[in-house]
Amino acid sequence: MSIGKANLEIFADVLMELAQFDKDIIVVTGDSRKSARLERFAEKYPKQIVEVGIAEQNLVGISAGLASAGKKVFAVSPACFLTSRALEQIKNDVAYSDYPVKLIGISAGVSYGPLGSTHHSLHDIAALQAINNVDIVVPADNFETREIIKACINYPRPIYVRLGRNPVEDIHALGTKFEIGKAISLMRGKDVTFVASGETVSIAVRASQILMSQGISCGVISVHTIKPFDEITILNAARETQVLITVEEHSIYGGLGSLCASFLLQRGVKPSFKIVGIPDEYIVTGTQEEIFRHYGITAQGLAKTAVELLRKED
């Protein structure tokens, strides 16, 4: 796998490409054009960007108003603030009012690293899953990000796009088909399947390579869409494999793992199951890589977890 750009850079690049053909594309930022890599966009399309300053509630309210007038609005702010300080506006002004605002949460998960818990967004998927009429997407690499942003332009519903700030590995082959709401099976396995989202997908792929070198059949699924959830793909994987492990850059509560566990249990499918994510604690301070290593979100850590679960099955 090769290293690409940060997903938020791809977001900015695609928006630059599309805005030249569509004057209805409007970006609303909350003192975040630099961190969102939107400086070139602002220079080239000054009439298509609105800066509200550090005022996330106003940001979402203004975005809803512009969307009500037919504009294709991208509301951009750090994920930790967008989905906490402006949660009421997301619920009422966007979701309840049914305006197709594209909520762009940048530097998500633990991307901010040493800035610590105040800047980590480990709650955002949990909070937004509970709000009706907001779809949630978490791209794993540059390909998924590019396809999601292109699909967002004329997307008919409110949607939340969760983006990291660090360079990511490219995981998809040329010609891969993409559709919001449809998970992508990168490989299939009979012993273990990793069900991952966002930047943890590439880690799951590397873990699968370790396991396969040990003679363990391993699958990987990229769940880029949390809501609407691809039930069929997850159900098939759970029926075909001994061990199912979910991996995410989010709290172990209310994210991808909780969603899979609830779904499978209600359908009576009970594989050996493990949620790998951030535990319910004030997390250690460090870079994204250091935090991942501490909580076992590494290729070696995931491979070890899989082997331990397989041994319990024997």
Short descriptors:
314 residues, alpha/beta, Rossmann fold, 2 domains, 7-stranded mixed sheet, 5-stranded mixed sheet, 12 helices, 14 strands
How does this model look, in words?
The longest helix is centred in the C-terminal third of the chain and has 15 residues, at 299-313. It contains 12 helices and 14 strands. The relative contact order is 0.12. The mean pLDDT is 95. The protein folds into 2 domains: 3-169, 3-Layer(aba) Sandwich (Rossmann fold), CATH 3.40.50; 184-313, Rossmann fold. With 314 residues, the protein is an alpha/beta fold. It has helices spanning 7-19, 39-44, 56-68, 79-82, 87-96, 124-129, 142-152, 201-213, 231-240, 256-266, 288-294, 299-313, and strands at 3-6, 25-29, 49-51, 72-78, 102-106, 135-137, 159-162, 167-169, 184-187, 192-196, 218-222, 225-227, 243-251, 272-278.
